[in-house]
Structure formats: C-alpha cells, structure tokens
Design goal:
This protein has a domain of 79 residues. It contains two helices and five strands. It is of the alpha+beta class. α1 crosses α2. The strands form two sheets. Strands 4-1-5 form a three-stranded antiparallel sheet, with helices on one face. Strands 2-3 form a two-stranded antiparallel ribbon.
C-alpha cells in the first residue's frame, strides 16, 4: 500500500483563456487542494503561484489523476480538447521558504470560446 504524504503540484494547461484555468483550479479546490499555506510557527499565509496547489495526505499519482479528472470534466462540459502541457507532483515536507504574496483574485469573466 502506498504512503500518503502532503503533495505539492504545479501544472500548465494549453489554454490562454482564464476561464479554463479558473474552472480547473476551482475543481481542484473542491477536491480539497489549497492555493495557500500557513506557516505554523508564525501563522503567516503564503499564497502559491496560480497553477500550484497542495493537499495533505495525498499520493502523487492520485494528485495527477485528480487534475486529469478536472480537466476532462471541463472538456466534456464545454466540448473542448484542452490538455495538460506540464505537470509535477512532489512529496511536500515541512521545510520550505517562501515569499508571502497577495491573495488570488477570482476571475469570473467567461469568454465566448475556450
């Protein structure tokens, strides 16, 4: 049986339309992924780059499947054929450095065509 670790994922999807990225990210957030980390000793929040997410107790191969499922769901709903261009999932440890960044803004604009 595989061991569940905290996982950090980074990905790129072959679309320039914010609505595609927003829909996929929102799907991943609904699956329990997060776009920010809280550093326990200080309580300070670090906002991750737009297509970087993390989740506690998840296997790296399951994280990839979660992303693929979210993109497949989007493609079926919108009759599109977007694909993942780049992807990496890493076991995430408690040792890290960051720039705190600013909270992400929600992009609700939907283009006519994806």
């Amino acid at each position: 049986m595989a061991q569940d670790y905290d996982v950090l994922i980074c990905y790129d999807i072959n679309s320039k339309h914010d609505a595609v990225h927003t829909a996929v990210k929102n799907c991943m957030l609904a699956k329990g992924y997060a776009d920010r980390l809280t550093y326990p000793p200080t309580g300070k929040v670090t906002y991750l780059p737009n297509t970087t997410l993390w989740k506690q107790k998840r296997e790296v191969d399951v994280a990839k499947t979660d992303l693929e499922d979210c993109l497949t769901e989007f493609n079926k709903k919108n009759s599109t054929n977007h694909f993942i261009e780049r992807f990496i999932a890493l076991e995430f440890t408690s040792i890290w450095q960051s720039l705190l960044g600013q909270p992400h803004t929600s992009i609700s604009k939907s283009p006519d065509k994806y």
